[in-house]
Amino acid sequence: LAKTTQPISMDSYEGQEVNITCSHNNIATNDYITWYQQFPSQGPRFIIQGYKTKVTNEVASLFIPADRKSSTLSLPRVSLSDTAVYYCLVGEAGGSYIPTFGRGTSLIVHP
Amino acid sequence: DTGVSQNPRHKITKRGQNVTFRCDPISEHNRLYWYRQTLGQGPEFLTYFQNEAQLEKSRLLSDRFSAERPKGSFSTLEIQRTEQGDSAMYLCASSFFTGTGGETQYFGPGTRLLVL
Predict the structure, then answer these.
(1) Which helix (H) or strand (E) holds A75?
(2) How does A3-24 read in b/e, with b if 16+ C-beta sit within 10 Å?
(3) Which of A18, A34, B35, B57 could form a disulfide with A75 if both were Cys (CB 3.0 to 4.6 A apart)?
(4) How far apart are CA A72 and CA A92, in angstroms?
(5) What pLDDT, in 10s, does the model give residues B12-63?
(6) Distance (Å, rounded) from C-alpha B110 to C-alpha A4?
């Protein structure tokens, strides 16, 4: 299982870009990297997924270096509504799969 | 709404009672997951099904916990002889997994259990 490490918390201000890095040193060849967002009293919500290089969608970008031992979720121009906990999940759904969420990163966006 | 639904949303029970939670996944999804989440922690994997087969159940917390997905559609999670330590949010998620590549899980709103 690929163990992940993220900062416990981060603070930012409205309009800034936020980058949250996840370390996964023992990532396996077939593992994908997926990021989820969770608001209080709600289930997590998918943000973005990637395998290598860069992936971008309408809400975020995901940067994965060549060695894949880390990944960075980039949120452009955050707003107050981006205040949430962000989790990175690393694994291969086709194998003996035990999705392992860490404690996540609590992002607080200030006015 | 065609998202994942969970019932009940809240459950209060007394220690020693049995409780059962239901999860209805997105209709075309073949995988269904159960997680437990306590305050300040990420979701903790319990078990998952692919269609009606329970592929991983080693992380069920004790033999008091069991899950079923009898027809490959909805699923139930039962906790027998509840203990105060079982108080938590129980989350269900579903996905459509093709056999290769990544997977996106869609989570329900959760069932919050309080054991008195």
Answers:
(1) strand A70-75
(2) ebebeeeeebeeeeebebebbb
(3) A18
(4) 19
(5) 999 999 999 999 999 999 999 999 999 999 999 999 999 999 998 888 889 9
(6) 24
**A5, A30, A36, A86, best to mutate vs chain B, most B CBs in 10 Å:** A36
DSSP letter string, B13-36: E-TT--EEEEEE--TT--EEEEEE
Q: Which two tokens stand for residue B72?
A: 């490959």
Please check whether residue B91 touches A, CB under 8 A. Answer: yes
Is the CB of residue A39 less than 8 Å away from at least one CB of chain B? no
Between β-strands A9-13 and A105-110, what pairing exists: parallel, antiparallel or unpaired?
parallel
pLDDT tens across the length of chain A (111 residues)? 568 999 999 999 999 999 999 999 999 888 999 999 999 989 999 999 999 999 999 999 999 999 999 999 999 999 999 999 999 999 887 766 788 888 899 999 999
